Amino acid sequence: MMGQRTLVAAIITPLALAAIYLGGYPYQALIVLLLAITSWEYSRLLKKINLHTPLILVIGGVVILGVVRAFFDFNYLAALLAALTMLAAAYHILDFERRDTRPAVDFGATLSILIYVGFLGSYLISLRGLENGRWWTFVVLPTVWIADTAAYLVGSTWGKHKLAPKTSPHKTWEGYFAGVLAGILSSPLLVALYNRSFQAGITISVLEAALLGLAIAAFIPLGDLTESMIKRQADEKDSGTILPGHGGIFDRLDSLFWAAPIGYYLILHLFIQ
Fold first, then answer.
1. Cα-to-chain-centroid distance, residue 188
2. What is the DSSP letter of 144?
């Protein structure tokens, strides 16, 4: 299992880094594809707990949200989300007339996919679309990966105090604080590395970079816990099997659904001059 996991990581990591570096259509297409797969995995998990979400609507809606995020401004995105909400409501009203016995909870489930995966997930496109977005993305995403790794290593080795025992029994407060510390340290180091080696032009101080790392690392565990909550109720260990040894795409993106909007707004309003 570990060899399989390592092999998959060795394949997907360079591809992900190359897509971030290139940006533009390759990156946007990859994100939209990953979000579409995630919406399918999410819908499958909800089906396990007898929640009905129309696949055409949720996958199509998530794809369109990603495309609009890539090519249009926020007003169009908000208008689209409003339209999708109305369309989802109309669908579940009609479905209730035909056969559905729990239209209200199914409507909520459909909206959760559109908003959580489509709206929040597509901030990965907005982050890369910022001025100097290549390097900002290379700060935010690796900070997530480093913090997650530190949390796992410390939590699995020394963790004794459970963070959320019902939702994710293996997460500990020791691991959480290790992840936060790793985020605080790694973000300034990444900024310094890129500026020194690649003339990235990331114009923030060490303190500001540390604060960015703190904000990301402090909140990304909630992304993992959100997915764990869904999987726990569905009695599933992973969201899917598309990545051998790693689970599904949702399992890999859960923390990024929090990190991308947090990083985007902090960078946009505090650090871009």
1. 22
2. H
Give one word for 55, left, alpha or beta, with left for phi > 0 and alpha for psi -120 to 50.
Answer: alpha
Closest by CA position to 84, among listed 121, 58, 53, 105: 58
- The pTM assigned to this predicted structure is 0.94
Map residue 41 onto helix, strand or coil: helix
For Cα atoms 199, 271, 129, give the angle at the middle one, nearest 5 degrees.
Answer: 70
Over the stretch 139-196, which tens digit does the pLDDT of each residue have?
999 999 999 999 999 999 999 999 999 999 999 999 999 999 999 999 999 999 999 9
Query: Which residues have C-beta within 8 Å of that of residue 83, sequence separation ≥ 6?
Result: none
Residue 144 tokens read as: 């997530």
What pLDDT, on a 0 to 100 scale, did the predictor assign at position 49? 94
List of residues 6+ apart from 25 with CB closer than 8 A: none
Supply the pLDDT for residue 271.
85
Count CB neighbours of 99 within 10 A.
8
Show me where the domains of the chain are located. 2-271
